[in-house]
Amino acid sequence: MIERELLDTAKIPGGGELRLFRRPLKNGPEYSIALGANELMNSRLSSSEEALATLTCAQLKSDQPHILIGGYGMGFTLRAALKNLNGQAKIDVAELVPEIIDWARNQMQDLTAQSLDDPRVTTMIDDVAAVIARSGAKYDAILLDVDNGPDGLTNEANDRLYGMTGLAAAKHALCNGGVLAIWSSAKDASFTGRLHQSGFSIKEETVTARPNGKGARHNIWLASKD
User: Fold this and answer.
1) Which of 32, 184, 194, 221 is deepest in the core (most CB within 10 A)?
2) How many angstroms separate the Cα of 10 from the Cα of each of 38, 77, 96, 206?
3) What is the helix (H) or strand (E) element at residue 190, kind and residue range?
4) Taking the CB of residue 80, how many other CB atoms lie within 10 A of it?
């Protein structure tokens, strides 16, 4: 088995350390980001993150949409959004860990396809919860791929995105008809209940990590503000 190489580490605000790895393979390098023994992201497992964007874009009603992506990760959601949106769209990307953006521009630049330099994109080193809290009804969609979903694996503070207060703030930041889209590693019935209590109309989609329909099965909530 080909050993992976540790490229860099990054502290998570509030505690914990992310580690960036690269493994050389015949068809190109494989990148992964881990927290302890948990692999959070892998460059070969991108389908569910891409689906977060494609499913959301299919529901947008505006021909000049303004969307917010919370958590850059490896950029799969951003790149899929750029492919599915026209030149009039605006995309704000909020990433809490500045090294994630540094890695995208340096060690993993072969993955970025220069998406961060697209004129439609504005990058913010900021907590997406704070961005949402200070936003009026400006977004046509808010896409959250923060942590492992509502469970808050890497940062307990992420819970404030998924509790009743956080959902109310997200709803306030959406235009009428806007969509709150949330990626999760697994289903969560209690979170689905909170979305209902918050007054959203909900669709749930199960998507796979690999483009061939194989691999881990992940969950996406598409919650509309009526």
Assistant:
1) 221
2) 15, 21, 11, 31
3) helix 189-197
4) 23
